[in-house]
Amino acid sequence: MSTPPAGTFVPPSRFAVPGRIAVSNRSAARWQTATLTEIRRETPQAATFRFAVPRWEGHLPGQHLMLRLTAGDGYTAQRHYSIASAPDDEGHIELTLDHVDGGEVSGWFHTRARPGDEVQVRGPLSGFFAWPGDRPALLIGAGSGVVPLMSMVRHHRARGLDVPLRLLVSARGPEELIYAREYGAETTPVFTRSAPRGVPVGRLAGDHLAPLLAGAPAGGWEAYVCGSNGFAEHASRLLVRAGQPVERIRIERFG
Amino acid sequence: MNVTRGFTGRPRVHNPGLPPGQYDAGDDWPVLSAEVTPDLAPADWSFRVDGLVAAPRTWDWDEAHALPESAYEGDIHCVTSWSKFGVRFGGVSLDAFLEAVRPDPAATHAVAYSHTGYTTNLPLADLTGGRAWIAWEYDGKPLAAEHGGPARLLVPHLYFWKSAKWVAGLRLLDHDEPGFWEQNGYHARGNPWEEQRYSGD
Ligand SMILES: Cc1cc2nc3c(=O)[nH]c(=O)nc-3n(C[C@H](O)[C@H](O)[C@H](O)COP(=O)(O)OP(=O)(O)OC[C@H]3O[C@@H](n4cnc5c(N)ncnc54)[C@H](O)[C@@H]3O)c2cc1C
């Protein structure tokens, strides 16, 4: 947990207070080799890539890393990816990548990568979106935005935590819902284009949030929103309208 | 060099304007703020400069617009790897604000802060000499809220997290004091040409 050092300038208003965790500068600065050990298909568009990273110093659910691919002529491409796995997965981390149309890095993963391949990673990065498992958490994600939130859900399960946790996950349809088999009672899927019989179709709306905010645990929720910028804007504005304080909303935008 | 098997990257032309590790985002302008986009009307916006200055001062929207106009035309670079070429911002040079408050010679750094409470630190030398702006126009139109409108700080020679959106003020200090991302592991200065991404780079 980091609180600003004494004497630090504090602006007249603050968001996302208090701070979450300090990041290890050493591990954030160092590139290391990650070896692909397994590929699991999640949906037609998304797959999970499991890596052995022997010197990984651990992460908190919600953190991301930077990944780098290097071409034969020295050209490199680097992108950020959220960590999908729970922290307790010794020496291994998992990423879940959407196959972006024409995407340079996700394209390589989805069409070329196979177990045994090596890539470079550095991290974990950013303590801001991290959730150590200490406060009631309301998680809202869309598409691959569910990845860092799933790390939180898995952590919650693996440790048997009893701090309240709820997940709202938006997908176009059931076949595009990443991690569908893993969700339990904590999760409400929202389908925007097609849904199983009896399940309504439509965008995430105030009606989805109202019961969760009305039934908030004592002290309220810490809200974590993740997805495309369009989704993040929509969901965070809905939260504010539903009464969630702005300084208790953390947003991770994938761009 | 750790060559990735089967990775060639997309066809590329060498672009001397692209700092190492960056790609050209073309027409895209990704949004990467950690907070909720505030509903901030120009009438509710103000900009204050205080700390180690002789005459602290706050400007409202009209007072800031009465200062001499100054535009930036050039490139911007985000730490998340995208760069954007040939962008045009309109606003006022930060020099105009700083001249009015008369910085104390002891001032070496500044913390810029936003109406949302976001903070970021900068050496004063990076904010003077025509290298920083308060910007309220993008491509001749009012700056969109999600990009920091009604007004943001613009320090285009550093990674873009230094260009605080919804800027509310600058406090001048005689020491460097990490801001929001800098406390979260990012580099104190953030020069894209030296790839100063994370603390320790
Ligand atoms: C903090 C953070 C966490 C993230 N976590 C995840 C995650 O868990 N899972 C996930 O899937 N994504 C995640 N992302 C998004 C990820 O970083 C990449 O942006 C995404 O994988 C696309 O990268 P790419 O190289 O495949 O596509 P890019 O090559 O970057 O292309 C993106 C789009 O731009 C177009 N494009 C860009 N440049 C060119 C060019 N020169 N010529 C032609 N077309 C171009 C492409 O056609 C494509 O439509 C995260 C992003 C952030 C910031």
From TrEMBL, chain B:
Name listed for the protein in its UniProt record: Molybdopterin-binding protein
Q: List, alphabetically, the InterPro entries matched.
A: OxRdtase_Mopterin-bd_dom, OxRdtase_Mopterin-bd_sf
Q: Where in the numbering of this chain does the Oxidoreductase molybdopterin-binding domain appear?
A: 37-181
Q: Name one Pfam family in it.
A: Oxidored_molyb
Lineage of source species? Bacteria, Bacillati, Actinomycetota, Actinomycetes, Kitasatosporales
Q: Where is this region: Disordered?
A: 1-21
What's the domain of life for this entry?
Bacteria
